[in-house]
Hints:
The first copy, chain A, has 360 residues and is an alpha/beta fold. The first copy, chain A, has helices at residues 14-32, 45-51, 57-64, 92-102, 126-129, 169-184, 200-213, 226-235, 247-261, 299-311, 316-331, 349-358; strands at residues 2-10, 35-41, 68-73, 107-113, 134-140, 150-155, 158-168, 189-194, 220-225, 242-245, 268-272, 279-282, 334-335, 345-346. The interface between A and B is large, with 61 and 60 residues.
Amino acid sequence: MNYKVAVIAGDGIGPEIVREARKVLDKVGGKFGHTFEYKELLMGGCSIDAYGEPLTDETLQAAKESDSVLLGAVGGNVGQSNWYQLPPDKRPEAGLLKIRKGLGLYANVRPAILFDELSGACPLKEDITEGGFDFVVMRELTGGLYFGERKTVEENGVLKATDTLTYDENEIRRIAKWGFEFAMKRNKKVCSVDKANVLDSSRLWRKVVKEVSKDYPEVELTDMLVDNCAMQLVRDPKQFDVILTENMFGDILSDEASMVTGSIGMLSSASLGATKLGLYEPSHGSAPDIAGQDKANPIATILSAAMMLRYSFDLEKEADAVEAAVKKVLKDGYRTVDIMDEGKTQVGTIEMGDLICERI
Amino acid sequence: MNYKVAVIAGDGIGPEIVREARKVLDKVGGKFGHTFEYKELLMGGCSIDAYGEPLTDETLQAAKESDSVLLGAVGGNVGQSNWYQLPPDKRPEAGLLKIRKGLGLYANVRPAILFDELSGACPLKEDITEGGFDFVVMRELTGGLYFGERKTVEENGVLKATDTLTYDENEIRRIAKWGFEFAMKRNKKVCSVDKANVLDSSRLWRKVVKEVSKDYPEVELTDMLVDNCAMQLVRDPKQFDVILTENMFGDILSDEASMVTGSIGMLSSASLGATKLGLYEPSHGSAPDIAGQDKANPIATILSAAMMLRYSFDLEKEADAVEAAVKKVLKDGYRTVDIMDEGKTQVGTIEMGDLICERI
Ligand SMILES: CC(C)[C@H](C(=O)O)[C@@H](O)C(=O)O
Ligand SMILES: CC(C)[C@H](C(=O)O)[C@@H](O)C(=O)O
């Protein structure tokens, strides 16, 4: 089969990590008889430089016409880059919000895995993480405070800013379904996180999630308040299987979860919607300070490409092959600088990509 | 001097921890020549049982007429208690929101301290916490999503819930001032946390905080996005001095911060406003499962009483004496069960209170 992949390399280390992921896709394609047809698109700072805005309608349209999107990272150094002199809706990150909404990608999945081989990098003590942990944060991605009405007005000489947090039943139901579907393929536990003791939107969230859970009698559903969840991620991350939550809480908790693993350079993410078209990107940022130095860890992007194979193209075996190759390369002792440890072999971005390809 | 202290023991372990804090206040009063006149008030579940609502207007009025409020904890077991069958605005926690707003307590201060003697309980690895850390989260407490308009409506048969996040300049300015004032007495660093890449309220927040910072040229101000802050608290808590943030972010981050210390039973909190009247309570909850068993750690409440001496009554020496007694008791090897460690002496709630009194 031939798959059309929109490639958004983006800014900073984006181009070099995406290059390695393409290499891996081509290798797996060659082995299993698929071809990937890449269309390179601009988004973020590079698009601002080229077109004056972070994501043009034409680029969005081109993304819509592809089978999936592979993204590196967008954005620069806030303190240094001219991009951040622009109004907020013209900055690099606005491109990300526009493409999520434009492609209807309402379900963001971020695995938080403590890789056996990298447990030394975990900030938590060993008695907490012994045996490892492996959970996902399922974050609603196109609703809530991110896409509600907002305005800043002056009243009697006083500036006043308002953002709106809205969810309707349908928005909650569709993301809850994703949460339970994921749980069914995992350890059958959903922890739904909200602030139901304060927010109306959270109370509706809790009610609808409970309704949806009736269709998944095998899955154990628990509710947790967001402040408690922020504590539990540090106290006992092993308790989680699927954390299901709304957009802003998911932003905070998924970042906390990725730091808890200690190896954010390893963590992939997928943004999914109603069709097979998904967007796949590493959980980490564009790291402008190390861009172009062959230092970046391409593994998160490579594992995101594996998620693309699995979720957009239903290529399970192929996805497994990529994931196995990543595990093997770690087992064989190769490390980029961000995950380097005593007695291991340090390699650059390109060599890491090559080593993974060799193992497919 | 004579000070009028409204005492809200509350639910669960509330009564027994507040009793120890009163014991300590009386001891320090005796030593330094002050008297504390207590007025016992009901709030939370016990008020629901007595009056059908978590905080009556009469009780609020009585709190207003006192010089400060000492609070234990409110709330019960969500799964088991009848209190949670009530509509949200009638549940125990609603009393807390009503008293915060009613007394105009817009500044919540929660210290996150890694006590030398308790570093074993910290979930983070030693190389991260070596040398300890000591910062405060300064959380805005009467604005934002907590007190914005909310509604749940049905539109074409679809339920839709909305909460509103509003801040005006004045609300931001007054809490920012508290943040900088605290920093001036500490290490002169304020980290203001927001989500300015998405929210209008955060952009106004950032602007106003920056303006306020001009009056504190000695204080170093940095801005941090909330998702990044959730990571940094785990990666490197030592970097912080004062974290300044809005209500919901503060709820999440202060709880994360307290868990990062590993000894939530030790953490106090103060809610302050425009007058000297403040509300002081432990950071932890009502722990209904261990209530009445002489197991609860009273130290967080005792340290909250010390904050009361300092912030409401300007009794610096007296506050120092309480804090020193707590340090001494830890040094002498006494521990309640939640912070118990090998080779230490385990004591109950009452004995811990006595031991601290002896050291004043
Ligand atoms: C860049 C920013 C707008 C974005 C978000 O908040 O969603 C990022 O933090 C993320 O989590 O992908
Ligand atoms: C009980 C709840 C409403 C409260 C809050 O969210 O403010 C609590 O979590 C706190 O932090 O004091």
